[in-house]
UniProtKB/TrEMBL annotation, chain A:
Keywords: Membrane, Transmembrane, Transmembrane helix. The keyword Transmembrane helix applies. Residues 487-520 are annotated as: Disordered. InterPro entries: DUF4331. This is DUF4331 domain-containing protein. The chain crosses the membrane at residues 535-554.
Automatic annotation (TrEMBL), chain B:
Keywords: TPR repeat. The keyword Hydrolase does not apply. Gene3D superfamilies: Tetratricopeptide repeat domain. TPR repeats lie at residues 381-414. The keyword Transcription regulation does not apply. InterPro entries: TPR-like_helical_dom_sf (IPR011990), TPR_rpt (IPR019734). It comes from the Bacteria. This is Tetratricopeptide (TPR) repeat protein.
C-alpha cells in the first residue's frame, strides 16, 4: 500500500517582524484598545443570529373606534401598524407581513373573549421578476397599473360568536406605499380604489396613511426627571403608518345584534403568527393553539403605560381574559408610579391607593355596577348591556365604546373630560388628544382641583399635522417628503368637512366648567347613562384617566425601540 | 507593561496591524447595503441607525431613562454583529451597564443585553446566567430566551437549547426565533427543516441586515450540503456588504476554481472583519494557492488577533486551538482544546479536541471525541473527514473509507486543503 498522506503540517513558522518603530506604535495602539475593555474582535465566530428582530410589521401602534359621524348606525375601526414609516430617502415600500394575521376583536358580553373577530392576511403580488428592486416602472395611475410592479392584496375573514371564520373578500387591494409624486401623481385616486364596499354595508380599507396620532414625545421625559419646557412639536409629523380600517353596522358587533339594548362593545387589536413546533410535526399544536399572539393593543398608551417595559412582553402575549390574573398587572393599576413621580417633581399629592378608579377605567369600563368602582357613572362597561350575564364578566383591558352616545357635531379634542362624551376614553376618535386628555385630567383632578402649572399646556400639540377627511377611511393621505420639515406636509386630505377640533375654543377647566358639563347629559338618550353626572364623577374620571395614561406613557410605543421586543423599530 | 517583554516584536507588529484594522476599518465601514436584487421587500431605511440616533438624543435630554439605555445597548450589539466593528461591543457594554445602574430591578432588557454581550465574548455560562436572571424578572422576554438558546447551544446542552428555542417560538415566532430554530434543526442533521425555517425567517425580515443574515444562512445550508449553485444563489441574492456574504461568495469562487476572485474576497473580508476564523480560512486558501509566505502572515495575524481577545479578558480556546494546529503546534492545540472542552461540550469543540488528539498521536482518545461531534446527527463534512482520518490512523480502513467518502459526499468543497486531502487519501485506500 502506498503511503497515505495525512494532514501534514501546513505552515512554516512565521517570519520575524521588521522594525522597532512599528512595534512601538503597536504597543500604543494595543494599549488604546485594551482601554476599551474586553473586545470580541478576536472571538472566532459562532452563530450569532439577530437578537432584537426589526419586527415593526406586526407591531400594533394605535386603535381607534368611533361611531361613523356621517353614517349613523355604523361603527368604524381604524388600526395601525409599523410606526415611523419614513416617506423620504429612497423607494421605501412598507409591506404588511405576509406571515402574520392582523385582527380586530370585539367583546360585547364582557367575558374578555372575542365575540367578533375580523382577520386580515396579506399576500404579495410581485412582478419585479428579479430584474429590478424598484416598486414601479413609471407613473402609477391605478392599482392595476402595469407600472406598479409590487403590490399587496388581502383576504378578510370574519368570525362571530365562536363560529368558524368565513371569508368576506379575497384579493382586496392594498393602497401602496406612497413612493413619491412623480411615481404616484394622483395618490388620492389610489386611496379611493383601495376603499372597498362589501355586502352587508361593510367598508374596508388597508394601506398606507399619515400617522394620525399626534403628540410630543418629550412630554414623557418627566417620567425620568425631565421637564416640559421643550414641547410643542408633533414628534410623529410627517411619518406614515400602515392602516386597516373597517366600517360595519352596529348590529354586526352588538350583543345579540341589538345595539339598543346592548350598546357597549370592547375592542382590541392583535397580531399573530403561526405556531412553530420543534418536533417538526405539523398540526400537533392543540386545537385553537395553532397561532401565537405577538402583539396586542386596546386603549391608547395603556399597553406601554400601565405596564412597564418588564410587563409589556407579557401583555402582548396574553389574551384579555388573563389580564386580571396577573398580580403584577393589577398592582400596576392599583398602585401606579406616575402620581408619585409627579408628586416628587411638582408637589401635587398622589391620590391614595389602591386606585380602584383606575381598575374601573382600565379593567372594567366606567360603570356603577362594580362593587369598588368609585366613578359613579355608567358610561362604557359591558356590564351595562342589558343582556349581559354579570357573573361571566371578566375584567380586562380593552378600548370600550358606547355606541349609543350621540355623535358630537364639533368634537372636542379633550373628549369626555371636556364634556364631549363621544370622545376618548369612550372609544377613540382620530381627533382625540390622548396626551392632553391625560395631562388636563391631571391638572383638573388630583383632588385639589388646582392646576399644575408646569403641565398646563400639556404637550402643546393639539391636532394632527394633516387634516382628516369626512368620510371613510377618514385618514389623511400618506406624507411625501422629508419628515422633519415640521408642521403639515401637504399630504392632507382632499376634503375636510369635519371641523378642525384644534380650532375650537379651549374648554374651561375651571370647576365652573366642570359643573356646567355635569348637567349636559340630562335627557341623554343613551339607555345606560345615568340621568345626572356629578362633577366629582368627572373629576374621578379625569384623575384616573390622566394617571392611567401618564404612567410611563408611550415611552416604548413611540420611541424607536430596537431593544423592545414588541417595538423593534 | 509588565507582560511586554514576553511579547516578541513580531507579535507586536502584527498586533499593531490588527489593531489598526480593528479600530480603523471596522469603525469606518458601516453596513450600508445596496438595494436587494430580488425578492425582498424591505424599506431602504437603516432603522438600526435611526434607533441609535433617537436613543442617543433621548438620553442626552433624559439620562435617567433606563429603557433607552437598554435600547441603545441592544442596538449597539446588533450593530456590532452586522458591521463586525468591535468598538460597538464596548459601547453596548457601557450603555447596558448604565441602564442597570439607573434601574437594577425589573430591567430584563438590560439583563438580556448583557447576556448577549457575554455570548459574543464566548462567556456562555455567564450569558446563560444573565438570561435566567432576565427571565426571573420577565418570563415573557423573547430576548432572554434567545440569549439562553444561544448559550445552551454553545455549552453543548442540546436539549436545554431546544427547549429554549421552543419557548422562544411559543412567545414570538418571528425572525429571531425562526433563525434559531433553523440552527437547532441543522445541528441535528434536519437540513430540510432548517432550510424551511430559514426561508420563513427571510419572509419575516424587515431590514436589509436581516435579509443579509438569512441569505447567508441559506447559502451556508446549501454549501454544507455541497449544493454549490444553491449556495452561490443565496450568497449573491443581495448586494449587501455583510461580511459573511463576502466569505460565502469567496468560498464559492474558490470551489469553482476562480482563485483570484476568491483571494480578493478573503482579502476584503479579513480587512473588514479580521477574526481568527476568517484569517485561518484565508491562510488555507493562500496555502492551497501555493502562497505559503502570505499564508503565514495571515496565520500570524490570526494569532495576534486572538491574543488581543484573550489579553482583553476573552476566553476562546477553540479558536486558539485551531490557530495552534494550523501553525503546527499540536501540543499547545491539545492543551487549549482540552481547556475549552472543560468549559463546554459543544460539537465543534468535540471535533477540535478529537483532531488535536489526532495531531498528537493519541488516536484511540481522538476517536471518541470525533464520534461525539457527530452524536446529534449533524451533516458536517469536516467532522466526517476528521473521523475518517482518525479511523485510518487506528488502522480501520473500512471505516476510514466510509467516512472519508461520506465527507466528500456531504460537501466535496468543504476545505481547499482538506477536501483534496480527503480525496487523495480515499484514492490511496482503494476499494475494499
Amino acid at each position: 500500500m502506498a503511503t497515505i498522506p495525512g494532514p501534514a503540517p501546513r505552515f512554516r513558522s512565521a517570519r520575524r517582524a521588521k522594525t522597532a518603530v512599528v512595534a512601538a506604535l503597536c504597543v500604543a495602539l494595543a494599549g488604546a484598545l485594551t482601554g476599551l475593555g474586553p473586545s470580541t474582535a478576536g472571538a472566532s465566530s459562532h452563530r450569532e443570529a439577530p437578537l432584537v428582530a426589526m419586527d415593526p410589521a406586526i407591531d400594533n401602534t394605535d386603535l381607534y373606534a368611533f361611531v361613523s359621524p356621517e353614517r349613523p348606525g355604523y361603527l368604524t375601526f381604524i388600526a395601525n401598524w409599523i410606526p415611523f414609516e419614513e416617506p423620504n430617502g429612497g423607494p421605501n415600500f412598507y409591506p404588511f407581513a405576509t406571515d402574520a394575521a392582523y385582527n380586530i376583536n370585539v367583546d360585547n358580553d364582557g367575558d374578555a373573549k372575542a365575540d367578533a373577530t375580523f382577520r386580515w392576511t396579506f399576500q404579495n403580488v410581485d412582478k419585479r421578476g428579479g430584474s429590478t428592486f424598484l416598486y414601479n416602472n413609471g407613473p402609477v395611475t391605478s392599482l392595476d397599473d402595469e407600472n406598479l410592479l409590487f403590490r399587496q392584496t388581502y383576504k378578510l375573514e370574519s368570525k362571530f360568536d365562536g363560529e368558524p371564520f368565513k371569508t368576506r373578500v379575497t384579493g382586496g387591494p392594498v393602497a401602496p406605499s406612497r413612493i413619491g409624486n412623480a411615481s404616484m401623481p394622483e395618490y388620492a385616486k389610489l386611496r379611493q380604489q383601495a376603499t372597498t364596499t362589501l355586502p352587508g354595508g361593510w367598508k374596508v380599507f388597508a394601506g398606507q396613511a399619515d400617522d394620525p396620532f399626534f403628540l410630543d414625545l418629550r412630554v414623557f421625559d418627566l417620567l425620568y426627571g425631565g421637564d416640559l419646557s421643550e414641547t410643542g412639536q408633533d414628534t410623529l409629523a410627517g411619518y406614515n403608518v400602515n392602516s386597516i380600517a373597517l366600517q360595519v353596522p352596529f348590529s354586526d358587533v352588538a350583543l345579540k345584534g341589538d345595539p339598543k339594548r346592548n350598546p357597549v362593545v370592547g375592542v382590541w387589536t392583535t397580531t399573530d403568527r403561526a405556531r412553530v413546533r420543534m418536533s417538526g410535526k405539523a398540526g400537533d399544536a392543540p386545537e385553537g393553539r395553532d397561532r401565537v399572539q405577538v402583539s396586542r393593543l386596546g386603549n391608547p398608551l395603556v399597553n406601554e403605560v400601565v405596564l412597564p417595559a418588564n410587563l409589556k412582553d407579557a401583555f402582548n402575549s396574553l389574551p384579555p381574559e388573563k389580564d386580571a390574573t396577573i398580580p403584577a398587572v393589577v398592582k400596576r393599576v392599583t398602585d401606579p408610579e406616575l402620581p408619585k413621580l409627579i408628586e416628587g417633581i411638582y408637589g401635587v399629592p398622589a391620590p391614595a391607593t389602591p386606585r380602584n378608579d383606575l381598575v374601573e377605567i382600565f379593567l372594567t369600563g366606567i360603570t356603577t355596577r362594580t362593587p369598588n368602582g368609585p366613578i359613579k357613572v355608567d358610561l362604557n362597561s359591558q356590564l351595562n348591556n342589558r343582556d349581559v350575564t354579570a357573573s361571566r364578566f371578566q375584567p380586562s383591558e380593552m378600548l370600550r365604546l358606547n355606541l349609543s352616545t350621540p355623535v358630537t357635531k364639533t368634537p372636542d379634542r379633550l373628549g369626555v373630560l371636556a364634556g364631549d362624551l363621544q370622545g376618548f376614553p369612550n372609544g377613540r376618535r382620530l381627533t382625540d388628544d390622548a396626551v392632553d386628555i391625560a395631562i388636563q385630567a391631571v391638572e383638573g383632578a388630583a383632588q385639589t382641583g388646582k392646576l399644575v402649572d408646569a403641565l398646563a399646556a400639556g404637550d402643546k400639540v393639539d391636532a394632527n399635522d394633516n387634516g382628516f377627511t369626512g368620510s371613510f377611511p377618514y385618514l389623511a393621505l400618506p406624507n411625501v417628503g422629508a419628515v422633519n420639515k415640521g408642521g403639515g406636509t401637504g399630504a392632507g386630505a382632499t376634503t375636510d368637512d369635519q371641523p378642525d377640533a384644534s380650532a375650537q375654543p379651549e374648554p374651561s377647566m375651571t370647576p365652573a366648567g366642570l359643573a356646567g358639563l355635569a348637567t349636559r347629559d340630562d335627557g341623554d338618550p343613551m339607555p345606560v347613562m345615568v340621568a345626572k353626572t356629578t362633577a366629582w364623577g368627572l373629576v374621578g374620571i379625569a384623575a384616573a384617566l390622566g394617571t392611567l395614561i401618564l404612567v410611563g406613557l408611550l415611552r416604548q410605543r413611540r420611541r424607536p425601540t430596537a431593544a423592545e421586543p414588541t417595538q423593534p423599530l | 507593561m509588565r507582560r511586554l517583554p514576553r511579547i516578541r516584536l513580531r507579535s507586536l507588529a502584527i498586533l499593531g496591524l490588527a489593531t489598526v484594522l480593528l479600530l480603523g476599518i471596522g469603525g469606518v465601514l458601516g453596513l450600508r447595503s445596496s438595494a436587494p436584487a430580488t425578492g425582498e421587500v424591505v424599506p431602504q431605511v437603516d432603522r438600526l441607525a435611526a434607533t441609535i440616533d433617537r436613543a442617543q438624543e433621548q438620553l442626552r435630554r433624559v439620562p435617567g431613562d433606563h429603557g433607552s439605555w437598554a435600547t441603545l445597548g441592544l442596538a449597539y450589539l446588533e450593530q456590532a454583529r452586522v458591521t463586525a466593528d468591535p468598538t460597538f461591543f464596548a459601547r453596548a457594554d457601557g450603555a447596558l451597564r448604565q441602564s442597570l445602574a439607573v434601574r437594577a430591578d425589573d430591567n430584563s432588557a438590560a439583563m438580556a443585553g448583557l447576556g448577549a454581550l457575554a455570548n459574543a465574548r464566548h462567556d456562555f455560562t455567564g450569558a446563560a446566567d444573565w438570561a435566567r436572571k432576565a427571565l426571573r424578572s420577565n418570563p415573557y422576554s423573547a430576548e432572554a430566551y434567545a440569549v439562553l438558546a444561544d448559550a445552551e447551544t454553545q455549552l453543548g446542552h442540546p436539549d436545554a437549547a431546544t427547549r429554549a428555542v421552543q419557548d422562544l417560538l411559543d412567545l414570538r415566532p418571528g425572525l429571531s426565533a425562526l433563525t434559531r430554530a433553523s440552527y437547532d434543526h441543522e445541528q441535528h442533521g434536519r437540513t430540510a427543516e432548517a432550510t424551511g425555517l430559514m426561508r420563513q425567517a427571510l419572509a419575516a425580515a424587515f431590514d436589509p441586515a436581516e435579509v443579509a443574515f438569512c441569505r447567508y444562512q441559506l447559502g451556508e445550508l446549501a454549501w454544507h450540503s455541497g449544493d454549490l449553485a444553491g449556495a452561490e444563489r443565496e450568497y449573491t441574492a443581495t448586494g449587501s456588504g455583510y461580511p459573511p456574504l463576502i466569505q460565502g461568495r469567496a468560498k464559492v469562487a474558490a470551489a469553482r476554481g476562480r482563485q483570484g476572485e476568491a483571494l480578493a474576497g478573503y482579502a476584503e473580508l479579513t480587512s473588514r472583519s479580521p477574526t481568527p476564523g476568517y484569517l485561518l480560512e484565508y491562510a488555507e486558501l493562500l496555502m492551497a494557492a501555493g502562497r505559503g509566505a502570505e499564508a503565514e502572515a495571515q496565520l500570524a495575524l490570526a494569532a495576534a488577533t486572538h491574543r488581543l481577545f484573550t489579553d482583553n479578558g476573552g476566553a476562546d480556546d477553540l479558536a486558539g486551538a485551531a490557530i495552534a494546529l494550523a501553525r503546527s503546534q499540536p501540543a499547545e492545540a491539545l492543551a487549549l482544546a482540552r481547556r475549552e472542552w472543560q468549559r463546554r461540550q459543544f460539537a465543534e469543540v468535540a471535533d477540535m479536541l478529537g483532531w488535536a488528539l489526532h495531531a498528537n498521536g493519541k488516536y484511540a482518545d481522538a476517536l471518541g471525541y470525533a464520534r461525539r461531534a457527530e452524536a446529534l446527527g449533524a451533516h458536517n463534512a469536516k467532522y466526517a473527514y476528521h473521523l475518517g482520518m482518525i479511523e485510518l490512523a487506528l488502522g480501520d480502513r473500512d471505516a476510514a473509507r466510509r467516512d472519508l467518502a461520506r465527507a466528500l459526499h456531504i460537501n466535496p468543497y468543504f476545505s481547499p486543503l482538506d477536501a483534496p486531502a480527503a480525496a487523495r487519501t480515499l484514492a490511496g485506500l482503494g476499494t475494499p
